Write the structure tokens for this entry.
Amino acid sequence: MRRAVYPGSFDPVTFGHLDVIERSAALVDELIVGVLINHAKTPLFSAEERVNMLLDATKNISNVRVEAFSGLSVDFVKRCDAKFIVRGLRAITDFEYELQMAQTNRIMNSEIDTLFLTTNLEYAYLSSTTVKEVAYYGGDITHFVPEAVVNQVYRRIEERKLTGTK
Ligand code: PNS
């Protein structure tokens, strides 16, 4: 079985991520979307919330699984019995970081290859950080994230403002 893992923070999932998920799922038998539990960062959404958003957004793609993980991506990929990491490349600015990650991962596990998909031009500008910034200042995020995610983002940002957490 040809299995790949698409690791990321997905805080929150955007249409750019979904574009990469749809296109890479069509290339493999099974795609596992790996949601990083990152103890170093304070995400807007818990890993469970991010997993649930992704489960909902991918419910119509039959060969996609969504799981949270912590630790190294390569170790998660190995646990999944997968051979590929999928990452999206939006623009040249992504390239240096992505190349560094892919090379490091390959040194850590030479059996795992990273496959890059160039993001659809329509989403080349889009990032979860931009979505949060636009929402923070009350801008319209309906063009950036699935409908079910829109209100969750506004609500959480309002809660954060009330409690004074960023
Ligand atoms: O969506 P993001 O935040 O750009 O995804 C980055 C991610 C999760 C793929 C990367 O930070 C990662 O793989 N983290 C897990 C720790 C790890 O494996 N680090 C070594 C890669 S150099």
